[in-house]
Amino acid sequence: MSITEDEARKVAHLARIAVDDAQLPALARELSGILHFMEQLNEVDIEGVEPMTGVQPMRLKRREDVVTAGGMPDKILSNAPDAREGFFAVPKVVE
Fold it and tell me: Model pTM greater than 0.85?
């Protein structure tokens, strides 16, 4: 798949990148190269391959899942603009 100069101009506009008309052919070639590489990746057989979290095989750090009450409601509510009776108070939004 190749990208035309008009498509490159549209991509640059959508990305909010200022690109001179003289640079559009080079941008179109770069984008076409990226799409070509993506097409090559689609040809790779990944059947049965487990997803990885990184390139080094290691287990993620885990902690025991324990339910707690938090134990610090005063500290949590200290930054609230409005707190009443131990809860965040918000303006009524129902008409």
Answer: no
Domain count across the chain: 1
In this structure, is residue 9 part of a structural domain? yes
Quick one: average pLDDT of 63-86? 86
Q: At what angle do helices 5-14 and 24-42 cross, to 10 degrees?
A: 90
Q: Which domain holds residue 24?
A: 5-42
Question: What is the rounded CA–CA span in Å between residue 25 and residue 31?
Answer: 10
SS3 readout for the chain: CCCCHHHHHHHHHHCCCCCCHHHHHHHHHHHHHHHHHHHHHHCCCCCCCCCCCCCCCCCCCCCCCCCCCCCCHHHHHCCCCCEECCEECCCCCCC
